[in-house]
Write a structure and sequence with these properties.
Elements (H helix, E strand, L loop, with lengths): L1 H12 L5 E5 L5 E3 L2 E3 L4 E7 L3 H7 L3 E8 L4 E11 L5 H4 L2 H4 L11 E15 L3 H14 L7 E6 L1
Antiparallel strand pairs: 1-2, 1-5, 3-4, 4-7, 5-6, 6-7, 7-8
Protein name: Putative general stress protein 26
InterPro entries: Split_barrel_FMN-bd, Stress-Dev_Protein, YdaG_split_barrel_FMN-bd
Organism: Roseivivax marinus
């Protein structure tokens, strides 16, 4: 089951538009993840001097929380965060990132960071129609609703 859930995690993370990234003792901040299953990494485009940048400078620990009903993914991902070179920036640059940097990807304040997950607790749910069906069924039969897949992953 864990390998199936891991596969589901990476596929659904591709559809997540934002989550909360927290580093060290800093407050969580909304960030858009860029899933990279092949490299077992999650990339974030941030600004130099941000909490994510400061933690990555020291190779610190990070936590990424996801609650995305459209993607059917709820997760708490923990891992190491590091500064990344610009070689991956072209692959992960998008319109969301462009909205925050006047100079585009060549803006001097752009900083790419890489989170390498070491563990995650994941809940993968079905679409809203399937979830609604489970709620109705549970209320009619007095059983509990089926919430989808849940488990802990190691990367």
């Amino acid at each position: 089951m864990a390998s199936d859930l891991k596969d589901t995690f990476w596929k659904r993370l591709d559809n997540v538009t934002a989550g909360l990234l927290s580093t060290d003792s800093e407050r969580p901040i909304p960030m858009a993840p860029q899933a990279d299953r092949d490299n077992k990494a999650i990339w974030f485009i941030t600004a130099k001097g941000s909490a994510a940048d400061r933690a990555a400078q020291s190779g610190g620990e990070a936590r990424f929380d996801v609650a995305d009903p459209k993607a059917g993914l709820y997760a708490v991902v923990e891992g190491k965060i590091d500064i990344a070179g610009d070689e991956k920036l072209d692959d992960v640059w998008n319109a969301f990132a462009a909205a925050w940097f006047e100079g585009g990807k060549d803006d001097d304040s752009v900083q790419l960071v890489k989170m390498t997950p070491h563990s995650a607790e994941v809940w993968a749910t079905e679409g809203s129609a399937a979830f609604l069906y489970e709620v109705v069924k549970a209320n009619l039969t007095k059983d509990t609703a089926e919430g989808g897949e849940h488990g802990r992953l190691a990367f």
